[in-house]
Amino acid sequence: MNKPIIHVLWLPLLGLPLLGLSLSACSSLAPLTGERFTLEGELPADFALKAQAHYDVANNCNGRSQARSFESDFQSTPQQYRFNIPVSYRDGLCEMRLGRVGLFIHGRYGDKDWQRTYDNGGLTLVETLPLGAPSFEADGTLTKQAECTWLFQLSKAHSRQGQISKLLSCKGAGAYLVADELPGKTVRLNFRENPEEEPSYDRRWIKTDAGWRPCQGTESSDRCQNPPAFKTFQMNGQECTVYPNCTE
């Protein structure tokens, strides 16, 4: 508890000091403790995760919304991540309450800077769960599985035109959480890498027994024509006809 602050006031008519006490409220200045939850899970090799927690002012304090970041970097082998995220905390006289957690799922498929990409997910705090949304188990855990799929395409960037580039699409990378139930709980969000890659656009590639073949487009469209005509592409310094095997 903060010590009382003693103010000395002068009464000009009497020329005497008047002592007054200004007691600060202990409950309004005391830091909140123990209000955290754990976000943990598994990441595939060459994946990284950033969780960005967004906080809003919960009292009449003249403060601003804030954000705190929690990160797990790339590793060449599968890894476990674990973030202890505050549900609330004090910033001076302001009581900050968690509003949502944004997730940035990063993946890399090569050693060059442009061979990295990401997809988004998130934890949404609500007063009541939407119909069908899972709730915490009796042991205080909520477990979900997210699946990330690589979407391949032919790059149109001038410096690497005709080479394979990829996007990342992660399904199930999030959850609804009841805000009042969150302190002390554990959200276990595991990420799985889909072994089957897919084209980033429909009707740009045709799947054969040997692999995916890119279509030769026309002046007005990049889509496969009927009958299709195929083209070659560059991958790892080689000229290829099918993906991912390169040659038939």
N to C succession of SSEs:
EEHEEEEEEEEEEEEEEEE
Mean pLDDT: 87
Domain count, please report it.
Answer: 2
Q: Residue share in helices?
A: under 10%
Q: How would you describe the shape? A: elongated
What does this structure look like?
It is a single chain. With 248 residues, this protein is mostly beta strands. It has 2 domains: 33-200, no CATH class; 201-248, no CATH class. The protein contains 1 helix and 18 strands. Strands 3, 6, 10, 11, 13 and 14 form a 6-stranded mixed sheet that branches. Strand 15 (205-207) and strand 16 form a beta hairpin. The chain is elongated, with a radius of gyration of 28 Å.
What labels would you give this structure?
disordered N terminus; Lipoprotein; mainly beta; 2 domains; six-stranded mixed β-sheet; 248 residues
Outline the secondary-structure elements.
Layout: E1 5-11, E2 16-22, H1 26-29, E3 36-43, E4 47-57, E5 66-72, E6 79-86, E7 88-91, E8 94-108, E9 116-126, E10 141-154, E11 164-171, E12 174-178, E13 186-193, E14 198-199, E15 205-207, E16 212-214, E17 233-235, E18 238-240
